[in-house]
Protein: Glycoside hydrolase family 43 protein
Organism: Cryomyces minteri
Amino acid sequence: MLGFIITAASLSSLSLLFSHASAIPVKRAVSGPVVIADFPDPSIIKIQDTWYAFATQPNFNGNIHIQIASSKDFSAWTVMSGADALPNMPSWVNTTSGNGLTWAPDVTQRDDGSFVMYYSAVTNTAGEGRLHCVGAATASSVTGPYAAVGNGPFVCPTDQGGAIDASGFRDQDRTRYVVYKVDGNAIGHGGSCNNGVAPIVPTPIMLQQVAEDGITKVGGPTQLLTNDASDGPVVEAPSMMRSPDGTYYLFFSSNCYATPDYDVAYATAFAPTGPFTKYGPLLKTGTYNLNGPGGADVDQDGKHMLFHANYGSGRAMYTAEIAVSGNLVTA
C-alpha cells in the first residue's frame, strides 16, 4: 500500500541565550522542508532500529482515529497509509461527535515488551459531546491494533473541563508516570482557545504515577504547573524526560494553537513531582521560519524531538535534535 513520503526537517544546532524568564533565539537555516501536512500532536518512540510517530486524527480522513508514520533514520519518514492504530473506540467515547475527535496519542513500551497507548477522545457521559477525556489501550505490537482497556477513561475530570495530551514517562529507577493536561479551556468563557475572557480557567499539567502496566494508578495526581499571564489561555502538550545529571525537563506548549503565539516551552526540576521553573520558549513563530510550533514530544533518549507547526491547510510534523545542560535547552 502506498504511503506519503516525508522529507524530515532535521533541525541543526540552535544557539539560545536564556534568562530565567525568556529566551532569545539565534536563528540558523533549516536543513530540510516540513515533513507532512496534517500530522498534528506527534509522539515518538524507537523500537529496535525503527522510529515510530503517532498523531491526532487527520482532517482529511475522519475514519482513521490515530495516524502512524515510521522512519529508519529519523530523516525520511513514511506514513502508513490507511493504517489506524486504534480502529475501535470504547463505549465511553462519543463516536457521533467527529468520530471521536481522537487527539494526541502517546505510546510507551512496558517491561514485558507490550505497549500502552494514551489518547484523548470525546466522552459521551458529560458535556454533551464537548469534553475530552484520556483513555488507555494496549497492543502486543508497537503499530497495533490497540484495544481499549476497561469500560471507562483513564483520566476524566469533567468538572474541570476534561483531560487531553497524556504522555508516558519511565524514570531511571523504573517508576512510571503519565503527564497530562486538565482541559480547563473547554469550559472557559470565550475568546482565544475559549479561555481568553476573564475569569481565566486553569489548565494545569498533572503528573500521575502508575504501576508497571502503565495503567494502574499509584496514589493521586500532582500538579506540576499551570497557565499564568505569560502563557496566554493555556499550557498543554506535556512531555517529560530526565537528563543524566538528574535534571527533569517538562516540555509543553503555551498560548493558543490557533494563533501565531503558540510555542514549545519547557520547565525544569530536580524531581518528577517538581517544583518546576518555566523557561523558553524553545521554538516559536519565526524560529526556523516556523509558524505556530507546538505539540512537542521528546524521546526518552533526551535527544530526538517531534513537533508540529502550521503548514498549508494543516499542521505538519517536524523533527529536531535537542541538547540539554542544566536549565538550558537548545534545538
Observations:
- Residues 42 and 143 are 14 Å apart (CA to CA).
